[in-house]
Amino acid sequence: MKRRTLLASLGAAGGAVGTAGCLQGTGTPGDERTTTRATTTAATTRDDATTTRDTTTDATTDDERTTEQGSTDDREDWPSAREPVETLAINDREGLSFPDNNRPHSLVFWNAVDRERSVRIEWGDGRTEELQGIHPVSVPEDGLLQVDLQVPTRYDVFVSVDDGRLGEIRVGRDAFDCNESAGRYALRESAIEDYGVVSTAAGCPAPSVVEASLTAGDGACGNRDDEQAVAGYGEEVVSVEGTVPAPDPCHDLAIASLSYDEKTRTARVVVAATPSDDGCVQCVGAIDYEATIRYEHDFPDHVEVYHRSWDEDRRVAAAAWNDDI
User: Fold this and answer.
1) Does a structural domain hold residue 184?
2) Does residue 297 share a domain with residue 225?
């Protein structure tokens, strides 16, 4: 097939295991400067510091990025000097894209009762949502158990002690960036108490487009129902394949715009059909294409693909990194 290729360098147009042990993070930040805010989403930059984040919880807790500057409650101090009796890993980092900007996020569980208990962890993640489990671990009185979440996605983590489920912890995609971080949870007699998240606070680079290219095939007569697209993530690229309907088969295709919304961590790709100078048969055209967008630093969490023809934009495909959509 004869193909037309457009290549554009867009610059910045688009916008290991056991990390908790490296932090003052499972305890208090000591004399280091802390940052305070009620809630946050994944920031693209932060000042260098150590940050503690604290929320309250009952049986279900969200591992949110909230911060604290000196707790005033009367609860017991977190046992920061202890080492975990065991460190478990959920998922595998082999082949992970942009690993430096997506470090593991740890969950540290404190057996805050006066006896040994058997602790069992089960989880579902955004990639499969199927519940999986890890073998039970015997944790002594005042002992710690660490679980490292290796792959950046969302997690529902269920904690059981002895023969009963104690509660659930939800971890969002924004828990993973270039920082070392750990959520701390006290396993009380009948509930989970959230001691907040501790984290280093380095500035993390946002996703940036290095290069984008589109290759279009020769158009053919078709109809508007031929429109389709599929988007997916590769090693460091987002690939899109699709068919754009146009007023005639001789229209040219190009990536008209690439944008990135930091708040939603979503990239928007617009593939546009524009008239050519060549004479053409009079019929509705259907034009196939393949597009590749190469990123550095990190991927957008979500990609949305739009087609533009007849002066309108239509959302035709979406993809999510390490997540079901």
Assistant:
1) yes
2) yes
Same domain membership, residue 163 and residue 257: no
Q: How far is CA 252 from each of CA 160, 224, 255, 302, 317, rounded to the nearest angstrom? A: 59, 16, 10, 27, 20
Q: Per the structure block, which two tokens stand in for 218? A: 């020769």
pTM of this prediction?
Answer: 0.76
Question: 35 with 171, same domain?
Answer: yes
CATH code of residue 77: 2.60.40.2560
From first to last of its 325 residues, what are the pLDDT tens digits of the chain?
333 333 222 233 333 233 333 454 354 333 333 332 223 232 333 333 444 444 333 344 555 443 343 344 567 899 988 899 999 999 999 999 999 999 999 999 999 999 999 999 999 998 877 899 999 999 999 999 999 999 999 999 999 999 899 999 999 999 999 999 999 999 999 999 999 999 999 999 999 999 999 999 999 999 999 999 999 999 999 999 999 999 999 999 999 999 999 999 999 999 999 999 888 999 999 999 999 999 999 999 999 999 999 999 999 999 999 987 5
Domain that holds residue 25: 19-200
- Quick one: 113 and 134 in the same domain? yes
User: What does the block give as tokens for 248?
Assistant: 């005639």
**CB-based contacts of 206, cutoff 8 Å, min separation 6:** 15, 44, 260, 262, 297, 298
Taking the C-alpha atoms of residue 181 and residue 50, their distance in angstroms, rounded to an integer, is 10
**Cβ 98 vs Cβ 134: under 8 Å:** no
Query: Cα separation of 84 and 182, whole Å?
Result: 13
Distance CA 319, CA 153 (A): 13
Q: How far is it, in rounded angstroms, from Cα 43 to Cα 150?
A: 20
Q: Which of 172, 200, 228 is the C-terminal boundary of a domain? A: 200
